[in-house]
Design goal:
The chain is an alpha+beta fold. The protein is built from four helices and eleven strands, in the order ααββαββββαβββββ. Strands 1, 5, 6, 7, 8, 9 and 11 form a seven-stranded antiparallel beta sheet that branches. The longest helix has 17 residues. About 10% of the residues have low confidence.
Length: 252
């Protein structure tokens, strides 16, 4: 009886902390975005998932034409050259670009199991307070089973202090449980600080997720966004735009 009641409480805590907060766009854009290229964000490719790529004809790739799969007879044409390009012809830094109200470019990562990892260095030291996820608003008009939009999302940060990192990790596991072991491994100084669900069916495509863990004085210049699942039955996941808000910390 007591064990079942505790499980219900844990489930409610997870649902509460996993729900997005839908802010006004004006309020969100007024905050400092540490994922902005203007503020010096850079992709850490060593811990970032590979871009989902397809084979296309090199002449089309050189002209930046949309990817087109070769026909059966073209595969055997000795005068044709195949090149490997991104399925959307975009790369990880795309998600740090400005948001467009129309259908803008996205970055898709290939992993074979729908997971995605995007590592970045930001202008620090800073303490994260909120992650904002934006997805193409036009995609909600399509069957969600065909949209490789992110579903379960995690945010990680590097913390050099061992005691502080352990405290943060314990808080995370108390709220959410263990992390996804399928994603590319990170150095030991990284610790998860939040896990949420992006709601593809929400009327607000810009969804803000506040950090529920007490980070104390933990600061960082390195963060990782992990996507553990997507809304489609797809082996790859796509991201459109991300924002990271936080508190700037001055080194004394």
């Amino acid at each position: 009886m007591e064990h079942g009641f505790r499980n219900q409480i844990d489930s409610l805590k997870y649902e509460l902390h996993s729900q997005p907060r839908n802010p006004l766009a004006s309020q969100t854009k007024a905050k400092i975005n540490y994922f902005s290229q203007i503020h010096g964000v850079a992709v850490n490719y060593h811990f970032t998932s590979p871009t989902n790529r397809v084979w296309v004809w090199c002449d089309a790739a050189e002209k930046s034409e949309p990817p087109k799969a070769p026909t059966w007879w073209q595969r055997y044409d000795p005068f044709q050259r195949l090149c490997s390009v991104s399925i959307t012809q975009q790369y990880p830094a795309t998600v740090f670009g400005p948001w467009e109200e129309s259908e803008g470019p996205s970055w898709c990562a290939a992993s074979g199991d729908a997971v995605l990892q995007l590592a970045a260095t930001v202008q620090g030291p800073m303490t994260p307070t909120e992650l904002v996820v934006e997805y193409n608003p036009n995609s909600k008009q399509i069957d969600s089973r065909t949209v490789p939009a992110p579903k379960e999302i995690e945010l990680w940060m590097s913390v050099s202090d061992d005691v502080l990192r352990e405290s943060i990790g314990q808080q995370f596991e108390a709220l959410y449980g263990p992390t996804n072991s399928l994603v590319k491994a990170l150095p030991h100084e990284y610790v998860p600080i939040g896990r949420w669900m992006y709601d593809l069916h929400s009327s607000n495509y810009m969804q803000a997720f506040q950090i529920p863990i007490h980070l104390k004085q933990a600061t960082t210049g390195n963060v990782v966004v992990r996507v553990n699942s997507n809304w489609a039955q797809s082996p790859f996941t796509c991201l459109y735009r991300l924002r990271l808000h936080g508190l700037s910390r001055t080194i004394v």
